[in-house]
Amino acid sequence: MKIGILSRSKALYSTRRLVEAGQERGHEVKVIDHLRCYMNIASHKPAVHYKGEALEGFDAVIPRIGASVTFYGTAVVRQFEMMEVYSLNESVAITRSRDKLRSMQLLARKGIGLPVTGFAHSPDDTDDLLKLVGGAPVILKLLEGTQGKGVVLAENKKAAESVIDAFRGLRANFLLQEFIAEAGGADIRAFVIGEIVVAAMKRQAPEGEFRSNLHRGGKAELVRLTPEERLTAVRSAKIMGLNVAGVDIVRSNHGPVVLEVNSSPGLEGIESTTGKDVAGMIMQFLEKNAKHGRTRTRGQG
User: Fold this and answer.
1) Fold of the CATH domain 2-92
2) Does the domain spanning 117-179 belong to CATH 3.30.1490.20?
3) Which of 64, 145, 154, 138 is nearest to 101 (CA)?
4) Fold of 97-112+182-287
5) Where in the chain is the domain with CATH 3.30.1490.20?
6) What is the pLDDT of residues 21-54, one digit of tens each?
């Protein structure tokens, strides 16, 4: 197959591993910087151009779209879909998963366990908003934040009110979520391909930190998922319409709750922790499923 990887850099671990895995399996793999792509939208024959040439003959694309360029990146993916090129994760599914509010509403509608969550822009009654999620301590998240940025733990009511006032001053949309103290600063990343959890790791936040992101000093270790956690991860990816997803789960006193469904999960942490060839599994999935014209989004909403 001829496979395009939509990525800003060939040097990124995930991009490099996907290239290696594809080439090892005999595929032609090309890394394409999606921000340098350009398109003729009105053309009767949709095309994507890159560095002066039309990108043609691709059987599949693998979007590795950063959150900060979701709008343009998904436009490029959509153009490939119009060309009937198979996309590992489709444009609608990526956009859906990147919208924190929309994704949580969709998950809640399907009965997926979530932290108690409130949504606000400029609340007139901060007291009532805090009561809505069970009071402090509480997590506050900017809708536009990624990788743990724009996420604040307010340990008491006064701190929560101060952060809400600051967000209100920024005219920012934000989420409030219950703080799940029993998780002890740990969460689980379940890596889903198709309808199977192929790898999982537990991430532990460093002392004095509540965010378990590995690039913030979190430590990762192997973890065995319960059947309920596996089902939750697979259902969450399916609801988003994602073929490949990193589903972040916290173990609470009332069962597994989903924090986020990531449409471009990194490979470095999961491969180094589990020793599994996740990049190879992604290529294997493409080999079975990448067919010309199979571009309809599987998810709903």
Assistant:
1) Rossmann fold (3.40.50)
2) yes
3) 145
4) D-amino Acid Aminotransferase; Chain A, domain 1 (3.30.470)
5) 117-179
6) 999 999 999 999 999 999 988 778 889 999 999 9
pLDDT tens digits for 229-242?
999 999 999 999 99
Q: Whole-prediction pTM value?
A: 0.87
Burial class (CB in 10 A: 0-12, 13-18, 19+), 65: buried
Between 113 and 174, where is the model more confident? 113
What was the pLDDT predicted at 101? 87
- Bridge partners for 28 per DSSP: 2
pLDDT classification of 204: cutoffs 50, 70, 90: confident
